[in-house]
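Reviewers asked in the last cycle whether our approach scales beyond single polypeptides. To address this, we selected a multi-component target totalling 234 residues and predicted its structure end to end. The input consisted of the following lines:
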Amino acid sequence: EVQLLESGGGLVQPGGSLRIACAASGFTFNTYTMTWVRQAPGKGLEWVSAISDSAAITYYADSVKGRFTISRDNSKNTLYLQMSSLRAEDTALYYCAKDAYSSRWYYFDSWGQGTLVTVSS
Amino acid sequence: DIVVTQSPDSLAVSLGERATINCKSTQSVFSSSNNKNCLAWYQQKPGQPPKLLIFWASTRESGVPDRFSGSGSGTDFTLTISSLQAEDVAVYYCQQYYTTPFTFGGGTKVEIK
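The resulting structure, written as structure tokens, was:
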């Protein structure tokens, strides 16, 4: 059974930094593209960033480009999102999601429960 | 970037009746490499992560009841719930995965009338 467990969320001041993680199990992690999707309180889903299976290719939403860095450690089956220069509008529940196909950039067939990041003074 | 727009924002349907949600993209999401539309539908219930319902615009995910169906091509798509059940109360999102950023629609909230 696929499991995705996010961690590392919390309260951070504007301008601060935070790294969140997603521990994966139940599938061959190093063969799947992984993605971060966020959801502000009471709002819709926003695609944030994605990384290829080998970590060679990364993509970012314009709203986070230059501030967030996605990475993965395939030896630890873990996905990361390093967030810096955080703003109030980054406050959201951050989900990690697994691509449905090995080595592809398609839709997401598994999601974690999310980790809440709150940016506030 | 491809902008994906859903309509309506919300709808209330009687139990057993049909619910129809529309999704429109600003450019075609039809992939000539595999002749498929790169469009997925997700269901999100309160306090839960999204759940995949439909992919390639019309293929139902394993375990999804057959009252859920997807249709459309190019830029215009529809999710239909043929006979609404109480457990279908949720917010539904479409998403294009034709090109990054893989944008989501704004969501449609489905309630019981």
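Residues 54 and 60 of chain B are 5 Å apart (CA to CA). We regard this as preliminary and will revisit it once experimental data from Aim 1 are available.
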